[in-house]
Specification:
Blueprint (H helix, E strand, L loop, with lengths): L8 H29 L6 E7 L1 E23 L5 E6 L6 E2 L4 E5 L2 H36 L5 H33 L2 E3 L4 E3 L9 E2 L6 E16 H13 L7 E4 L11 E5 L9 E8 L11 E18 L4 E3 L2 E7 L5 E12 L2 E6 L6 E5 L10 E5 L10
Parallel strand pairs: 1-19
Antiparallel strand pairs: 1-18, 2-9, 2-13, 3-5, 3-8, 4-7, 5-6, 7-9, 9-12, 10-13, 11-12, 13-17, 14-15, 15-16, 15-18, 16-17
């Protein structure tokens, strides 16, 4: 039988220990070599733009309500049944265009009656005129008394008064007859009819409304300080012609500038505001009474204002912030206080100085203390049509 050599216990376990230790050692070496060989990550590239300083006009906005320059409520002058609606609702009208027709038969009969009464009184006047002419020489010949001549002259005056009254009544009847054709008193846009064919209408009934919309009027209220600033601008700009801007409800700016029209006679003591009005051209009749819009006007000039692009500013819980890149290319998140806007720029009241580099592109990716690679920001694309 072959002889068996007994090995010590430590020697028997050594191969198993080496088989486990070698892979672990190799993995550690690989990790160490890999960590030392990986290049550092490149800093984030962001577009920056330095703040600028310039004199900017102070512009204020108010919420305004559009209204027709003239709003004419159309009421009939006579009572009668409505026979026909002539105009088309929402159409443009000229002064004198017929809107409605009222049954005129009764008024035509009244006009004929007054015409006959006028003819009767005119015949009486003619007779009394002949009597006076005939009696005058007879008095001189003592064929009739002076009393008879005086009576004839009194009858002549009475007959003349009757003719005058009958003529006025006939003119009134003709006017009532003409009023059965309800016409527009102004140029403008016709509203929706508030009566229907067959309705009994009278002077207390509003049939429709016609509004002059070119130019169109906008009413807005400003406080005393805003009004004073605006009034000073009027004086420096020759009455303020073309100083009003209108921003419509869809956010677009109306292409025509407006003129100041009037300021109310007093400031409302309850609200501390004064009612103002402006006029805007409306050749295409785009604007209509009742619309809401923002009215903007210059109320002063701010010298040496700091401006940054509007796209560099973001809001956090109602507070404005910007990312500023320092000389060491580290990002600082800085709270600011903003003022009025000037196109794509916004005035910064507090928080920035002239020349500060603010992040315009990549604001969503930066954080405080982060090292970045600043490059000049690309200018915003021009608006279509400009």
């Amino acid at each position: 039988m072959p002889s068996t050599i007994a090995l010590p216990l430590a020697e028997r376990k050594a191969p198993w220990s080496l088989s486990l230790a070698l892979p672990l050692l190799a993995a550690s070496l690989l990790l160490a070599c890999g960590g030392k060989g990986r290049p550092p990550a490149a800093p984030l590239q962001v577009g920056v733009q330095p703040t600028v300083q310039m004199d900017v006009p102070l512009t204020h906005e108010w919420v305004g309500t559009l209204d027709g320059f003239v709003n004419a409520e159309i009421r009939p002058q006579v009572e009668g049944y409505l026979l026909r609606q002539v105009y088309r609702e929402g159409s443009a009208l000229r002064k004198g265009d017929v809107l409605f027709e009222i049954d005129a038969r009764q008024l035509a009969a009244a006009a004929d009656q007054t015409k006959a009464a006028l003819a009767r009184d005119q015949a009486t006047l003619d007779k009394t005129s002949l009597d006076v002419a005939r009696f005058a020489p007879l008095v001189a010949e003592r064929a009739i008394s002076q009393q008879e001549l005086d009576n004839a002259r009194a009858s002549l005056r009475q007959a003349q008064a009757n003719v005058d009254a009958a003529k006025a009544a006939h003119d009134r009847a003709l006017l009532n007859f003409q009023w059965t054709r309800v016409t527009s008193p102004i140029d403008g846009i016709a509203g929706i009819a508030k009566v229907q064919v067959g309705d009994l209408v009278n002077p207390q009934k509003v049939m429709t409304t016609v509004s002059t919309v070119d130019p169109i009027k906008v009413y807005f209220s400003a406080n005393e300080q805003e009004y004073m600033g605006w009034a000073r601008q009027w004086a420096t700009k020759g009455g303020g012609k073309g100083t009003l801007t209108l921003v419509l409800s869809d956010g677009t700016t109306y292409p025509f500038h407006g003129d100041p029209f009037m300021a109310d006679r007093n400031v409302d003591v309850k609200t501390g505001t004064i009612m103002l009005a402006g006029l805007f051209p409306n050749p295409e009749h785009l604007l209509r009474p009742g619309q809401f819009a923002k009215v903007a006007a210059d109320v002063g000039l701010r010298k040496g204002a700091i401006l940054v692009p509007q796209r560099a500013v973001w809001e956090v819980q109602g507070n404005s912030q910007v990312a500023v890149v320092g000389a060491d290319n580290k990002v600082e998140i800085r709270p600011i206080q903003t003022g009025p806007r000037l196109g794509t720029q916004v005035v910064v009241e507090k928080g920035l100085s002239l020349g500060d580099r603010v992040v315009v592109e990549g604001t969503q990716k930066v954080s405080a203390g982060q090292v970045v690679k600043p490059v000049p920001a690309t200018p915003p694309a021009a608006a279509p049509g400009r």
